[in-house]
User: Which sequence fits this backbone?
């Protein structure tokens, strides 16, 4: 067996880790700067405050915080499921 991400389970684990890291690292930054670009800055708004709010929400039942964290991996799973459904319908449609 070779080292690295060769088996399907290790690939899925790597993609899940990448999705969670982007949910923690990239998504809050994108959300903050999208808000600044569309609504402008307001008093007390900072990127650090957004991260504090996100991590505080993870300890509580905050759907918004969990959606930010799990969003990138959830979109990957949605795309993967839709692709499998599309391929299955293409195979069942061609056999008559």
Assistant:
């Amino acid at each position: 067996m070779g080292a690295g991400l060769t088996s399907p389970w290790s690939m899925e684990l790597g993609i899940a880790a990448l999705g969670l890291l982007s949910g923690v690292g990239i998504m809050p930054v994108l959300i903050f700067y999208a808000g600044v670009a569309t609504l402008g800055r307001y008093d007390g708004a900072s990127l650090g405050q957004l991260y504090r709010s996100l991590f505080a929400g993870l300890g509580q039942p905050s759907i918004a915080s969990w959606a930010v964290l799990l969003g990138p991996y959830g979109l990957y799973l949605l795309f993967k499921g839709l692709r499998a459904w599309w391929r299955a319908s293409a195979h069942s449609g061609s056999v008559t």
